[in-house]
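Help needed: design a sequence for this.
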């Protein structure tokens, strides 16, 4: 299965917690008239390069179009090692992104927390003696929604959350705050391709159910055993290819005049139906 390339210890192991704490404690980078602006934005060539070299996970790198200087090429090489999304933008767009006006044509968006591996989640389930319960998010771009879902995942006993590399919010400071501390305990993995990841997990015994208003009523489905809950954004829902990779589609009964729920609310309702069925109630 595909997942982010950096190997890290599992969340149930002391070294994972130590590594995550060390990662989260790294907040400052030195550089003349440049550096970290908030917990996730880094501006300036030296500061961004130092961030890469220190091992910090960079979700997205913005580069001014047409730059060919040596230090920019070095930053590019570091970005490609970490599978960072690279986006070339105009001078006008770069100025809009900048909070200092001294970006030097380079701005990075760093993850506020370290990503885990999908395998970490399976190990966590095994350590707890429970069938795996994962939550996969397709196109959740609002960091507040992501944070709320991670919070729900922790409370519902899910063993991890999986997000795609593109068209999705990363682990920003806003996500961490909205998760109300759950991000310290619930592993989150970032993968290149959700469908490929699902196919790999199917070989390990997982079934997948996706939220879909045209699906079968969630109460009528068997949601016990090793399972992955797939939730899409509230605008487009789960994408066609991801939906086709699911084994079941679950609809949440609705009695009102509107026919959609906030993505984090939908995730919570379905997650707790899984919890209810697992408890045999």
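Sure. Designed sequence:
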């Amino acid at each position: 299965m595909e997942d982010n390339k950096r190997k890290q210890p599992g969340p149930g192991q002391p070294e994972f917690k130590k590594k995550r704490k060390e990662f989260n404690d790294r907040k400052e980078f030195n550089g003349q008239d440049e550096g970290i602006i908030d917990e996730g934005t880094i501006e300036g060539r030296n500061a961004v390069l130092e961030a890469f070299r220190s091992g910090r996970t960079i979700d997205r790198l913005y580069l001014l179009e047409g730059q060919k200087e040596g230090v920019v090429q070095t930053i590019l090489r570091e970005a490609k090692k970490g599978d960072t999304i690279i986006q070339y933008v105009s001078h006008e767009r770069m100025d809009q992104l900048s909070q200092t006006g001294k970006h030097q044509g380079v701005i990075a968006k760093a993850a506020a927390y370290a990503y885990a591996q999908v395998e970490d989640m399976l190990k966590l389930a095994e350590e707890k003696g429970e069938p795996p319960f994962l939550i996969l998010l397709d196109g959740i771009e609002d960091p507040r929604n992501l944070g709320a879902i991670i919070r729900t995942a922790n409370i519902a006993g899910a063993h991890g959350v999986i997000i795609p590399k593109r068209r999705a919010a990363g682990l920003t400071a806003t996500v961490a705050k909205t998760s109300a501390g759950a991000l310290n305990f619930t592993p989150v993995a970032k993968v290149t391709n959700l469908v490929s990841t699902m196919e790999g997990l199917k070989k390990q015994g997982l079934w997948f159910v996706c939220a879909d208003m045209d699906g079968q009523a969630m109460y009528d489905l068997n949601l016990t055993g090793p399972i992955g809950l797939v939730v899409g954004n509230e605008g487009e829902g789960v994408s066609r290819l991801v939906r086709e990779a699911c084994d079941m589609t679950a609809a949440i009964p609705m009695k009102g005049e509107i026919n959609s729920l906030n993505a984090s609310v939908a995730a919570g309702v379905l997650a707790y139906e899984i919890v209810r069925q697992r408890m045999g109630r």
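The two ends are 34 Å apart (CA to CA).
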